[in-house]
Design goal:
With 265 residues, the chain is α/β, with parallel strands linked by helices. The chain is 42% helix and 15% strand. α2 (75-89) crosses α3 (101-112), α4 packs antiparallel against α7 and α5 (149-160) packs antiparallel against α6.
């Protein structure tokens, strides 16, 4: 199993490349999962992408197979982890694709290390929490702190999918998220609550795709509309009949939008 030490943690990663080796290489697509998830959240994207682009899957610090830091950490820490991983692998540029928390990390990566991002895809995420969403965000964080991981996972993953999702798939991801260490999960939730990139989005000058499920209850479409409006030239793709984790609920539609964007660069 591939692990790489990066600062105070070890990151689990997988590199999958079925592109034609006699053609000039494209930058890898870096798939960054959401809160409480891991690299398995991209199971429908890897087969669709890996014959056209190298794929780099990673578990963020405190998630999946990666190590769990004892102290609080920030989104900037997670972005720095990824840059260190890329350097250790000899990768100069990537196409970051971030879901939810992963979208925050992707923004931070593009802002703090602009030479790394060849493009940016932000899925079901935000640039900051507007005042009208502040009470809901505070209530969500209080819920995380007050309950065990089984309760948190059941409530949050149920809310993250639309009501029409396959219940067996929903149950699988509830079980996966319930297996998170509560302390580390809370650290990551605090990092989300502290994040804001709104004042810096004008610095992003790479092609950007913003994707949101029309039934997203976690980061509703207006947050993605704001994000797309603040990044110059960004395009917005809304996916019907999908909630927060739209890449799992409507994988064919999601993959088509992502590939159309990446192939057009």
């Amino acid at each position: 199993m591939p692990f790489q030490p990066v600062g105070d943690v070890q990151l689990y990663y997988e590199m999958i490349d079925w592109t034609e080796p006699w053609k000039s290489g494209r930058p890898p697509v870096l798939l960054i999962h959401g809160l409480g998830g891991d690299h398995r959240m991209w199971l429908y994207q890897v087969p669709a992408l890996c014959g056209r682009f190298p794929i780099l899957l990673v578990d963020l610090r405190g998630h999946g197979e990666s190590s769990q830091p004892a102290l609080d950490f920030t989104v900037a820490d997670m972005a720095r982890d990824l840059v260190r991983l890329l350097r250790s692998l000899g990768i100069e540029r990537v196409h970051p694709v971030g879901l939810s928390l992963g979208g925050l990390v992707a923004q931070q990566l593009a802002l703090d290390y602009p030479f790394v991002a060849a493009s940016l895809t932000l899925v079901g995420t935000f640039c900051d929490i507007p005042s009208e969403f502040a009470d809901a965000a505070r209530a969500a964080f209080d819920f995380i702190e007050a309950h065990d991981m089984a309760t948190v996972a059941s409530a949050r993953i149920t809310n993250a999918f639309s009501d029409a999702v396959n219940p067996v798939m929903r149950g699988y991801f509830i079980e996966r998220v319930a297996g998170n260490d509560k302390r580390t999960y809370t650290h990551a939730a605090r990092a989300i609550a502290a994040f804001s990139s709104a004042d810096r989005l004008g610095e992003i000058d790479v092609p950007t795709l913003v994707v949101v499920g029309e039934d997203d209850r976690v980061t509703p479409p207006p947050l993605s509309e704001t994000l797309a409006a603040r990044i110059g030239g960004a395009r917005l793709s809304r996916i019907a009949s999908a909630g927060h984790i739209c890449n799992l609920e409507q994988p064919a539609v999601f993959n088509q939008a992502l590939l159309q964007f990446l192939e057009g660069l």
